[in-house]
Design a protein that fits this description.
mainly beta, 8-stranded antiparallel barrel, 8 strands, elongated
């Protein structure tokens, strides 16, 4: 696992604290049930891994990799069944991140290459939701795929295979207007390793972390 995970970004810590506050507040809302669907659009700050296991197959050092990136998270859920305090939902998410590290940005060798890192993940999700129409918290997980590509600056992006990826986490939605909510989500992406295949390099087992904040509409 990337060393960056041991020291999550301050924004992620603050978002988690706020998420827990919202989860508590959700329980105080009206008993009207959760609506039939919701669509999420969120910005993210995520770790991308900056360790030797990820860098070495590309002939790079760990300190040549950007350890974090901004990202875009898009998703949606439909709510199918309510049992006591739990509303079950089905949905999916897509996350896109891209960043680079240029020599000199982090006191690197000024003659070294600019290194790009791109990450995309797609996954269905099963969610367990707790709360009511105006605010609820949730836990969700899904097994999908992701692509983590590391490469020195060049005109085209080299081909990299997708890997099986378990994403899991939780969040909350708090409706500040009838159809508009503040949406928070904290999510882990546990990526399966890939062996060497032709010119496509091996990729290690790694877990990335994304803190997401944005809006939800219904």
């Amino acid at each position: 696992m990337s060393s960056a995970l041991a020291r999550p970004p301050r924004a992620v810590i603050l978002a988690t604290s706020f998420l827990l506050t919202l989860a508590g507040n959700a329980r105080a809302q009206t008993l009207e049930p959760i609506d039939s669907y919701v669509i999420d659009l969120r910005g993210s700050m995520m770790t991308l891994g900056s360790d030797e296991a990820l860098a070495a197959p590309h002939g790079l050092r760990a300190d040549q990799l950007a350890g974090a990136s901004y990202a875009l998270d898009i998703g949606g859920h439909v709510y199918l069944y309510r049992w006591k305090a739990i509303t079950f939902g089905l949905g999916g998410s897509a996350l896109f991140a891209a960043t680079s590290l240029t020599p000199g940005d982090d006191d690197l060798d000024p003659l070294g290459p600019t290194v790009n890192t791109r990450f995309t993940a797609f996954s269905p999700q099963l969610s367990f939701n707790f709360g009511h129409r105006n605010g609820w918290s949730y836990l969700s997980a899904g097994l999908g795929t992701s692509r983590l590509t590391v490469y020195e600056q060049q005109p085209t992006i080299p081909e990299q295979r997708r890997a099986g990826t378990l994403n899991y986490g939780g969040g909350a939605r708090w409706f500040v207007k009838p159809n508009l909510a503040l949406s928070l989500d904290l999510r882990f992406y546990a990526i399966s390793p890939l062996p060497q295949l032709g010119e496509q390099p091996t990729s290690p087992r790694i877990t990335l972390l994304a803190g997401n904040i944005g809006i939800s509409v219904r």
